[in-house]
Amino acid sequence: MKNAITINNLTYGYPDQDPLFHGFDLAVQEGQWLSIVGHNGSGKSTLAKLILGLLEANSGIIRVFDQELTVATLAEVREQVGMVFQNPDNQFVGATVADDVAFGLENRQVPSEEMPAMIEAALKQVGMADFADREPHTLSGGQKQRVALASVLALKPKVIILDEATAMLDPAGKSAVLQTLKDLKHHHQDQLTLIVITHDMAEAALADRLVVINDGQLALDDRPQDLFVQGQALKELGLDQPFESQLAQALPKPPNQYLTKQELAAWLSTLKD
Ligand SMILES: Nc1ncnc2c1ncn2[C@@H]1O[C@H](COP(=O)(O)OP(=O)(O)OP(=O)(O)O)[C@@H](O)[C@H]1O
After folding, report:
1. Residue 176 CB partners (closer than 8 Å, separation 6+)
2. What's the chain's average pLDDT?
């Protein structure tokens, strides 16, 4: 399996600040669902901006598939990587949902007769096809983020980065967005690579692989279920262990692996007093 994103020996610091990344390496396989966690200010958003070429590395190499990110390749690389940001209200440019999805297609000079089918297909993928004529301000936060995702999907990226895309949503909005991500991943399988930056461990649990960034390095890199049982290590990195793991470890006979809420409930019901 090839790498969707390869980062080698990356160094980056904001002007007049200590370097955030110094010799940072990360390879994300094509088709992987990777979650990135880390305490506030650990550099997660900065890393996303570096991958998209919104910031320029001081040194090191970033590759998107086989293409090295440089000023000359920036436009091509950006065609392969889409991004959804945190604030649902900052991502709209169109007067209606359909206009909003059309905007990116217009920028790519897609012929106008091809657009309606592409817009409909993108909105369908996020369960928002019935909302095409709605004004964005009439949507809930979760619906807005799903439209933001549709705008990205319409451009057929191979990699989508979500930077705390559910952080401002209520529980219903959050689960609708996460269900959409699961459906997308199921639909596109190995054709779509997801990089999900989050503070929410339940969200991180959905990934195939979870990395923790600390002090400009990958501090931990494992399957979520293997990382979540490392309560002390997570605490030292300023992160919470998921509630299910905390509860499991507080039991007189803790299970020796991470259990989801449903698995934990089933396991508890088997315990005798
Ligand atoms: N435009 C900027 N100019 C200068 N410093 C910045 C800028 N953006 C971020 N920083 C600093 O760089 C560091 C990393 O910020 P970044 O937003 O990448 O972290 P993060 O891990 O995404 O944080 P959070 O979890 O709070 O979103 C922080 O110390 C932040 O204050």
Report:
1. 127, 142, 143, 146
2. 92
Which token pair is 47?
């890393």
Which 3 state secondary structure label does DSSP give 26?
strand
How far does residue 53's CA lie from ligand 1's centre (Å)?
A: 16
For atom 30 of ligand 1, the residue with the nearest CA is 41
Q: How far is CA 58 from CA 9, 36, 62, 172, in A?
A: 10, 22, 11, 41
pLDDT digits (tens, 9 = 90+) for 183-214: 999 988 889 999 999 999 889 999 999 999 99
Cα distance between residue 210 and residue 201, in whole Å: 10
Q: Could you give the ipTM of this predicted complex?
A: 0.97
133: amino acid identity, one letter: D
Higher pLDDT, 36 or 271: 36
d(CA 196, CA 181): 10
User: Which candidate, 43, 42, 5, places its Cα nearest to that of 26?
Assistant: 5
Give, in order, the Cα–Cα distances in Å from 116 to each of 127, 154, 172.
16, 11, 29
Closest atom of ligand 1 to CA, residue 42: 21
Q: Please list every protein residue whose CB sits less than 6 Å from any atom of ligand 1.
A: 14, 17, 20, 38, 40-46
